[in-house]
Every structure is written in structure tokens, then in C-alpha cells.
Amino acid sequence: MKSFQLGALAAAATLLAGCGGGDDAPARGSLVEAPATVGTLTAAQIDAGPLSTLTGPAKCDVKVVALNYHTIGPKGEQTNASAAMLVPVASATCTTTGEPLLAYAKGTDVQKPRTLANPADGETFLLAAVYAAQGYVVVATDYLGYAKSSFPYHPYLHADSEASSVIDSLRAARYAAGTVGASLSGKVMFTGYSQGGHSSMAAHRAAERDNATEFNVVAGAHLAGPYNLSGSFKSPAVIAGYQFFVPFIVNAWQNVYGNVYTDINTVYRMPYASYISTLLPSPTLTYTTLVTTGPTVGTFWLPGAAGETPTQARDLVFQAAFITDVQTNNNNGLYLDAKLNDELGWNPKAKTLLCGGAGDPTVPPALHRDVAYADFQSRGLTNVTEVDVDAFIQATYGPGGVAPLPGSPQFATYYGNYHGSYEPPFCHADAKALFDTVK
């Protein structure tokens, strides 16, 4: 692919220094093609949306720009990824001289074609409303294996390639800035939600450790992320969405490390063993159609349509002996891979926030946020804080300001929407409050 490089030679030299690879390798983050503006979200549109009471009035219109940039795979393979760049538009209410650059990592996505470079996308609208309309330049990667990326699979919850995708999106945004009307201050921030919380923490850690002279990292806000993967595999708790997320992990890490299994039938039960290794992300299927349609009439790609509990869904998909071995054998390949992708034991230098809601059934804070926070506190770090947004979620969505009881008419809706819909805006509001102190 021909590299479309922008910016001064000095900027290019800085980026080349961080790329590694051979002399002919394109600079990481350099643009595969010219950035393309795909639409604008006006301040009036943003104010008319559902987030205005949380964010306050929008100051800026937001230009949505599509980026396609050079990056690397988990084994250093030369490849590409796409991203959305959200650029505040200068106006009487919007000053755009020297804006901070915020890297965002999205949550788990089962839809391969989806890109955040889409003004109609709900996650893109949230980023525009909370950050870009308030004067932040945002770059949000689509990750490897999605949208315009030619990479053959998505290395799900693989910390190193998450970090490289996010960091290279920052470089791509810097390359594109002059063309799309962004004036950057040099300050860099990281945030992400769910899988993106894991990705943003991986990128934050890598930027401070490996790229401290390139990036002036001033803050990181990591939201509802699975930071303690090895601990979660040892836990008897079964998360909501297990039938989506755990096969995604197994298949990704088998591709990256090759040590999860030698025979797929020892991991998965039939019929799932016959197709699940290439099921996600899907060119056509969504969370809904994965559990309501199937490879043949009367079957389903994944369990869930019959109202199976998370434990029932797990036991339909996975072999019982495999689950037992993961939980009890410290030499199990999946557990060893999880240890490699935990995000404990490091010391962030910039201000850092961990956010989540105590009622989250998909990424339980007791297994992840609280463990990570305790790990940071064990080394006396004073720049790391944690926040629980459960009280706001209950007050907004729970009957009478409390979480509905299991079995009540409201419980299924509350339980199903907690992680994907209710929690993100409140965590993003806390993230922006942190970023505002250092921007």
C-alpha cells in the first residue's frame, strides 16, 4: 500500500524512529490514503440528543473524519487499521487553538464492517457530545480486523496489539491534523470503554514506557475494562455475554500464541466447534442475529435465544473438562495467555482514573477495577483514583432509585442494558472531568 504522508520532515522523522521493522516498512501511523471528511455533527444536533443534560451545551460543531493508517499486527506484521477523527470546528463559541488529543478505544464489537467514522453511530455521537463538542480532538481506532483493516482476524484483548493500534492512531491523527483543521497542543490522553478500557490502559502503559519522548501523556481514564483476565478465568462467576466474549478470547489467543488447544473439539462442544473459530467478528451478524439465526434451520450461531442464563450458555458452548482445567490448572494455555494480558504491576506516571459500576454483570468491578486499583495502591501511587457510578445508574434507571430485584419485570432490561448502555455515559462524564484538570 502506498503511504500518504503529511506534515513536516521533522515530524516524519520522529514517527519513523518509533516504527521498527525494515527500512522499507512504512512509518507506523502514516496514512494509507488521504483523510476523508464523512460528515459533521452540529452543536444543535448534539444538544438535541440524549446526553445534553450530562454534558452541558455543545460549544463546537464536530467534523467526522475517516483515517486509514499503517500499523502492525501482534507479531509485528505490516498491516493497516482505520479510525475516526473527531475535530472541533472553530466558531464564536469554539476556540480551536492548541487542542489536546484524546485517543479512544471502543468496546467489544461483533460486526466486522463497522467503523466509528460514521456520524450516525451511537458511540461516535457519545464521543462527539462528551469530548469533541467541548474542544477535544478525538481519534478512535476501529482496531485490527475491522472496517478498512486488511488484517485477517481481530486479536481480541491482546494488550500489545491493542496498544500499537491505539498509539498508531495517535500518530495518524498527527499526520492528518494540518489537512483536517486540527491544531494540537501536544498533550495526549487515553480513554476507552469495556474492551476499550483494557486497550486504553495497554496504550497508556506502552506510551509512558516506550514512547515517553514522543507523547506527552497527561492523563488516562480507563472505563469498565477487564484488567485482571487471569483472575477472571479462575473465578467461578460467569459473566453476562460469556458466549460472545470468551470464544472471542479463545480464538484470538489461539491465533496469536497457538497454545490454547491442539484439537478444537477439546474446547468447544458441537455444533459450535465446527464454525466458532472464525465466527467473530462477523461480516453480517450482530449480537441479536448471532442468537436468533443459525447455520441451519432451527439452529442458532450462539445460545441466548431461549433465555439461557450465562452459566447455561457457557455449558452449551464449552466442554466441561476445558472449563475445569482453565480454573484449576496453572499451566493451562488460556490461563498463561491471560497472565500475559493482565494489566497489573505497572506504575502510571500521569493522572489515572478507573471507572465502573458495582452492578456491572459483564465486567464486574470486584474482579477488575477494584483489583487493579488495589494493585496500584499497594505501591503507594497517589495519582490513581477509582469511581463507582452505580448510584447514578440506579437513580436514573432503577425503579425507585434502586436496582430491580432478580425476577422482577424490570430486571431483565436493567441487567441487559447495564454495561452496554447505562454505564458508559456516566463513566465518560467522570473521564472528562479528569481531563479538564490537565488539558
In brief, what are we looking at here?
With 439 residues, the chain is of the alpha/beta class. 37% of the residues lie in helices and 16% in strands.
Give an account of the 3D structure.
There is one protein chain. With 439 residues, the protein is an alpha/beta fold. Helices cover 37% and strands 16% of the residues. It contains 15 helices and 9 strands. It has helices at 9-17, 43-47, 52-55, 122-130, 159-180, 195-210, 229-234, 242-257, 287-292, 310-317, 320-328, 333-341, 369-378, 390-397, 411-436, and strands spanning 36-41, 61-72, 78-89, 99-105, 137-141, 184-193, 216-223, 351-356, 384-388. The chain is globular, with a radius of gyration of 21 Å. The two termini are 36 Å apart. 49% of the residues are buried. Residues 1-21 have low confidence and may be disordered.
Largest sheet: 9 strands, mixed
In CATH, the topology of the largest domain is named Rossmann fold
Quickly give the structural class. alpha/beta
What is the CATH-assigned architecture of the largest domain?
3-Layer(aba) Sandwich
Q: What's the CATH class of the largest domain, please?
A: Alpha Beta
Tally the structural domains: 2
